[in-house]
Write a structure and sequence with these properties.
The chain is an all-alpha fold. Helix content is 63%, strand content 0%. The chain has a single domain, classed as Tetracycline Repressor, domain 2 (Orthogonal Bundle). The protein has 12 helices and no strands. 31% of the residues are buried. GO terms for molecular function: DNA-binding transcription factor activity; transcription cis-regulatory region binding.
C-alpha cells in the first residue's frame, strides 16, 4: 500500500525535501498501511482500515512512552492504558515487547530503507552519488524520526537479536558511505586518508539530526538547511585540492590536506 507518486517529477534533478517527499512511495500518512502490508501474516486483525488505525495508535504510543521513560521500563499494560486498547486487543497485533521491537527493526531495515535507497542516483560521479545518499538519510530522518530514534536509542534494552540487528543497520550504512568515499578517492574526486572513520563521522552527523531535533527546531534549522550544510561540509572535508582550485563544487576548496 503506497502513496500516490504522480507528483514525482523532479527528483533527483531537484534535490530538496519537497521533491523527495513527492517521489518517495510512502509518507507519514501511509506508513502504517505499508506496515500492515509487511506484517499481514502476523497481524490477526484482517480488516485493513481498522488494523491501520490501531497500528498507528499502538506505535505512536510506543514511541512516546519510550521517549519519556525508556522502552525497557514500558510494559504492554502501560501501552494498553495509553492506547485504550485492551491487552487482548494488543495481542492481535503484537505478541510481546520483543516482537514489537523486532517489527520496528525489520520494518525500518527491510521496508522503509530499501524504498528510500531506490531513489539513489544510479549514475553520476561518486561525489554526486554521495551527496544524494546524504540527503536521503536526512530526509528519511525527518519523515520517520520516531522510528529511527527508537531503533537507535532503545536498542540497548532490546533482546540480543534486536540489539545485533540495530548494530548491523548502523554498520551497513557506514559501509555504504565508506564505499562511495573510496570510489571518489579512486576517481581522483576526493582526498581521504581514513575512509572508515570519515564514514562513521558522517553517519554520526546524520544521526544527530533525528536524535536532537529539539536543538535544530530551536535554531529554526529546516530539513533542507541541514541537508545542504552536511553536503557542503562533506565537499570541503573530502576536497581533492589538486583537482579543485576554485569554487567549482559550491564551495571554496580549503588549503592543506584532509587529515581524516
Amino acid at each position: 500500500m503506497m502513496s500516490d507518486t504522480s507528483a514525482q517529477t523532479h527528483w533527483p534533478q531537484e534535490q530538496c525535501f519537497r521533491s523527495f517527499k513527492h517521489c518517495l512511495p510512502v509518507c507519514r500518512e501511509s506508513v502504517y498501511g505499508e506496515f500492515f502490508d509487511a506484517f499481514r501474516e502476523d497481524i490477526k486483525v484482517k480488516r485493513e482500515s481498522a488494523a491501520i488505525k490501531n497500528l498507528k495508535t499502538i506505535f505512536d504510543a510506543t514511541f512516546e512512552l519510550a521517549s519519556k521513560g525508556g522502552f525497557d521500563a514500558m510494559s504492554l499494560r502501560d501501552l494498553s492504558q495509553t492506547t485504550g486498547i485492551s491487552m487482548g486487543g494488543l495481542y492481535n497485533y503484537i505478541r510481546s515487547k520483543d516482537k514489537l521491537a523486532q517489527m520496528v527493526n525489520d520494518f525500518l531495515s527491510q521496508r522503509l530503507a530499501p524504498l528510500a535507497y531506490s531513489l539513489n542516483l544510479e549514475s553520476g560521479s561518486p561525489r554526486q552519488r554521495l551527496a544524494t545518499r546524504l540527503r536521503i538519510y536526512i530526509y528519511m530522518g525527518s519523515l520517520f524520526r520516531p522510528w529511527y530514534r527508537f531503533v537507535y536509542m532503545e536498542s540497548k534494552s532490546m533482546a540480543r537479536q534486536q540489539r545485533d540487528q540495530a548494530k548491523q543497520f548502523d554498520l551497513v550504512d557506514t559501509a555504504k558511505l565508506k564505499e562511495l568515499i573510496e570510489e571518489g578517492v579512486h576517481a581522483g574526486e576526493m582526498q581521504c586518508n581514513n575512509t572508515e572513520l570519515t564514514a562513521s563521522a558522517l553517519l554520526a552527523l546524520i544521526q544527530d539530526w533525528y536524535l536532537k531535533s529539539w536543538k535544530y527546531k530551536q535554531n529554526d534549522t529546516s530539513t533542507d538547511d541541514y541537508a545542504n550544510f552536511l553536503v557542503s561540509l562533506t565537499d570541503k572535508l573530502l576536497a581533492n585540492n589538486d583537482q579543485h582550485t576554485g569554487d567549482q563544487s559550491g564551495y571554496n576548496a580549503h588549503s592543506g590536506k584532509n587529515n581524516l
